[in-house]
Every structure is written in C-alpha cells, then in structure tokens.
Fold these 3 entries.
Entry 1:
Amino acid sequence: MYIFNHIPKCGGLSYRALLEEVLGRDRVEHISINLEEEYHPDPDAHRRYTMLMGHFGVKWNEIVGPGREWMTALREPIDRVVSTYYYWRYNAALSPESPWLHMAQTMSLDEFIDSGHYLVLQGIKNAQTWQLADDPRWRYHTVPEQDALAVAKQNLDKFSFVGIYEQFERSVECMCKYLGVTPPNRVPRVNVTKTRPAVSELSSATIDAITELNTADIELYKYALRRFCSEVRPSEAA
C-alpha cells in the first residue's frame, strides 16, 4: 500500500496515468487536501486503494493512509515556478474567484512574482519544502518557518521512492522496479504546461526574484537529486 504526495507541476498526473496503467485504474485514487478549509478525512474510505495520490502535505500521510509507503517527485524549483505561472495563465479556466489564477492571467510573470499575495506565494514560494515538511497551505502550518527545510529533509529520508522531474524516464524505471511491475512501452506525459519560455530565456532579474523566494526548495531539490543519483549507476544518472 502506497501514498504519493503530488507536488504541483512535478509530473504527478503523468505518474498517476502510469500507475493507473500498471496497478489498475480502480486501485489508484487521487484526492486533494488543498482548499482553504478544515479536513476530517476517514482513512477507512481509502483502504481499498493500493495507491493514494494528491495535493496534500506529509502531515496528512498517516491520517489519510496510515502505514503506507511514501512516494513523491520533485522538480528544479525555478523551472517549477515558471511552469506554475504559465499553467495558471494559459491552461486554467479564467476564474476571478481564485486570486492566484486571476493574477496569473492578468499580470506579467514579474508582476506575478512580486505581487506578494499569500495565495500566490503559497504556490511559488518554497512550495515543495512546505508540502514535504508540513502542509502546503500557509494557514495550516504547524512547523516553524525556520525549521521547514530541516524537517522536509528528515521527511524525505522516510520516502521509499523520490522521483526527479528532469529525469522522468529514469524515475519511472526506478519506480516500476520499486513497485515490482513492468514499465510500460510508452511513458505518458499528462497535463503539460502550454507555451512557455525556458528558464534560460528569462532575465537575470526574474531568475533572481524567483530564486529569492525558493532558497529552501533549491536546497531540498539538491538534496533529493543527490539521493536519486546515488541510487542509480552514474552512467544512468548522467
């Protein structure tokens, strides 16, 4: 039995499509605990599923799915922020009721990054660290900010599988080996962000602004990448 903390824009829906193929669609459930509300999930409602996936922090893992093996995937933080902005700008439906979407669809990338709105920052400021340390929703944090990176690293050590977005195909191979299933002939790519610039095309000022918001995520990503590379042969991780 497994639980997959799906960090937004880290390939989670591609993993979901793959897992549904190798485990069976009726054995995988995707749930979300990310709205601005209190949750009181019943773990008994999920026991029949082999895999639980969703946008929720690790503090929910033992509540939603006690005793399960933990899985997740991370992405290079600057690229993840850029992907998030352009996904919200072009892939999501116009929604003035959702400030983060409305702002992405009406502001430039630089304006968006500098907006300071907490619901925007919740999605683009050290979001990977918070999801793996506690809860991605700022209102429900229980870990002090100065401790978040250390706690996220400690939690990451508890994960049985940690994929890397930039090495998706190799991550899929490692995940299938871990699950004891045969990798599919074709690895699915789902929910890809539409037209967007590469990080290399951004101005240095834009990159600096995103970097300043993601110092913890950058360190956490390096930590995860070192782990990933240590678990595969050097020639395969290159």
Entry 2:
Amino acid sequence: MTVKLHPLPALRRIHPGWWVAIIAAALLACWALVMWSGGTRTAMPHVMYLPIVVAALVGGVKAGAATGAIAGLLIGPLTPLDTVGGTEQAVAGWALRLFFFVVVGAVVGEGRRRLLRVEETRQKFISAVAHEVRTPLSAILGFSQIISERFDNLPEPELREFVQVINKEVGELQDIIEGYIVAARLDDSALVFEPRSIELDTTVRQALERMPNAVVDAQLNLDLQPAMCWADPVRARQAIRALVGHCLAYLDGELIVSTWQSRKAAVVAAKHSTEVERDVLMEGLAPMTRVRASGTRPHPVGMGLAVASRLADLMGGSLLHRKNGSSSAFELHLPVPDSNK
C-alpha cells in the first residue's frame, strides 16, 4: 500500500506552478516592504521568513533552502543598509543573514519531511495491526457462530475441536496485541519483568504454536535442544515471536530455529539460507519508523528485531547477527539461571 500525504490538504489542489508564482510574488513584496521601511537597518527584513517557511512547507528541504538563498540575496547586496543615506551593508552582515535564511528553510523543510514520515508510519501501523488481528478474529467469529447455531446438533468431539481452535486463536490474538503494546512501551519504565528459571526450548515451542500455521509449516524447521534460561516467560515468548516473525516476513527461503545452552547463555538461533541485506536489517531494527503493510507477505509479529533486541537487553541478554558465507543467523542470547543467583 502506497500512502501519498500532503501537509496542507486544503491547499493541495493548487498547481505547483502557482506556488512558485505565489512565493516569488511574496519575495518581491517583502523586498519592496524592506526598501520602503528604509533598508535593512530596521527589523523589517524578518518578513522574509514568511515566504521561506511557506516554500519549505510546500516543497520541502530544497525548496526552503533555495527560497532562503534568494531572500538572502534580495535583501543582501541588492538592498542598502539605509535607503535614505545610501549606506551599503557590510558583506559579513548580509552573508550571515543569508546563512540563517537558508538554515531556517532547510530546517522547516526537514520538519515537514519528518512529519509526513510519522503520519505515513501511523497509517501503515494501523493497517498492519488490522491485517494481523483479522485472521484470528475471523476464526473466532466463524467457529463461535457455528457453535451458537448448531450447539444441540454438534457431536462432542467436533464441539471440543471448535473450542480448542477458538482458544488457540484467542491466545494468538492476545499475543499479537501484547506484542504491539510492548513495541510501543519499550522505553517505558513501567514495563514489568518477572524473571525465573524456564525451559527455553519449551518456550520456543509455545511461542511458535500460536503463530499462523500456514506460514510456520511452510518455511520453518525446528532443532530444539534442551536449554534453561533466566527470563520472564511472557517477555521471552514475545521476543521469540518478534524474531521469528520478522524472519518469516522479510526473508525468503527456509528458516531453521534451534536452541542450545552454553556455560554463559541459553541461545535461540534463527538461521537463514540467504544473506540479510543491510537495509532489511536496519528496517527491522527501527520498526516504529518503517512498518511494511503492503503486498501478501506476512507481517512481523510483535514488530520485529527492535522488540526482540530490546526485550533481550532488559532481561540481561542480547540479540546478535552472524554471517557465515551465503547464510546468516540471528541469535537471541538469554542468561542462564546460575548467573542470577
């Protein structure tokens, strides 16, 4: 989904050519006002900020900086310090003013760009959440309607199966929502951790059981060895889902998830047969600024690598990325129980 945004929706119908003419007219009008007021010795040159800011809001960084340069030249060497006495400006004076005009235009234009990016991310974030929760909600609604309409006629084994599916989908929906909440609160000191000794291989199985079967079964293989770690079981599941979900969403080919334990750490590794490109890696590490919500590829559960990395840090572990020839692996390291006694 491509989202086209405009900072001033009410004015977007104006043709760009008209904006150029309007800003040029504003620059000339401001220059005439400075000349009429007696030159640059007064505070009147500050009116030039108006067309500079408008140009930056409409056209961005380049338009704002270019307009600032033109404004600086207009009331620079082309305008005397005092129109009555004919006193010329010092070069250092008008050059410094030109510099500030250009900087203001560029800063306002960059602010516009960042605002548009935040708005685009917000829309994509909402789309991503809606996309993820739609599948479990549809299953819950469908099976609950069948039970409601045919309760008296359903055999007990079939009824039990439907209830189990509903329970599974409710759990998946809970994990998805909790994952997004955690993603939005990674820097919140109120995020609660209750670490204890847990079986990491069992935790991995529990985390993957609630992920969409069609995606997991098609691309995922498990090699889980016994491993004990010291972590919050809920946060550990969220970190695992975030890591595996990101790999399934953004990387092609087969994914092997394995666990093992060393003397210093218990490890969950997601090994991929292809090398991870730098832009994909950086995108995963900054999910709140870039959220993919287009195409048919699954979305990263729990918002991706940034969540896994941050949760690991908060539990005393880390997330590492290793390259080995044409393959690569993400490793989630969590502390072992002995290190926390």
Entry 3:
Amino acid sequence: MEIIKIVITGGPCAGKSTAMDWIKRELSHMGYKSLFVPETASELIGGGVAPWTCGSNLEYQKCQVRLQLEKEEVFEQAAKTMAGDRILIVCDRGMLDNKTYMNDKEFGEVLEYLGKDEAELRNMYDAVFHLVTAAKGAEEFYTTSNNSARTESVEKAAALDDRLLSCWRGHPCLRVIDNSSDFEGKMRRLIAEITSFLRKTADHSDHNLPCGG
C-alpha cells in the first residue's frame, strides 16, 4: 500500500476549500483514494476555543497542535485499514502553519510540549502546496465573508501569506501556486503540480526525494 500525505496551505482567501473539491475529483482519475484532514483552527475557533478565549495564545496553540497531530495520526491509522493500494491524505494546513501565529519563545515551548523539533514537523509531509492569497495579485476577489474565522484586511492577509510560506521553506517539495491566471487556471495548476509529484513518487520508494521542476 502506498500512503502519501500532503499539505494544502496558503494565506487567507487563497482557494483552499475549492482546491479540496478539485483534488477529490481529479485525483480519483489517477486511482488515488483521497482523505481530507479538516483545518483545525477553524474547527476550534468555531467551537469557541480561540487565542482570545484561552488563558493565553500559548495555551491555545498547545490545544491546536495536539488536536491537529492526533487527527493526522488517526487518518493515517485509518488509511492503513482501507482497501486499495494508493491513498492520498490531504491536510488542510500542516503543523508548521501554526508557527505563523506564535513568537519564537512560544514556538519553542510548543516544540518542547510535543517532544519534536521543527524539522520533524516539516518532514511529516511528502509535499507542500502553497496557494497564494487573493490579496496578492487578485485583490478584487479577496473577501472575508466565506469564513467566520477570517478577519484580516488585504494588507494583513498579504503579510500573513508571506509568513506562512516562510515557515515551509526548506521542505524538499514545496510548490507555490500564485494568482498569475484566473481562478480556474490556478486550480488546474495546483492539480498539475500534485499529479506531477505523484507520478514521480510512484517511480521511487523514497517520497522525500526533491521534486525538482
């Protein structure tokens, strides 16, 4: 059985939710069964657990990383029991996205809490696909109305996008999908990058090989 785990990340209003629908539809044609790990922050904030309701941002982040890690482990456990020889686990944001919302001291304490280092969190995933926020290059389409957990202005969304991307620098297979085309073109470029990666990994037993051009 081949189980591959990828991250779909990016700034606010980047198209992640739509991307999940595209991945489910398009990847089934390649023989992959796709499993989707929901974004943890939206779940917690929507349920009343947030940085501003917990005792501190650090205490909130500990809750978030614990739940996120456990969810991913559950999905991997379940995947191993499923029929089929190609399973793709798609994470709506990965563990290192959380670094964006902490200062260095907080992040260090979270790593200690998890008993892991930054490289371990980065290498949990076979590939990372960063969708650039609409606030960078498609400002007229930027909105906060479709996500109750999203409150950023265009300027803050662009800055957040930069910080999120910087957290994943160093991953051997990091792909950035910008707004150089219309939205459908953006989704098609994402699918092309994912399928290209999957074809390469199908030829190698080492999923962490650099996925060059």
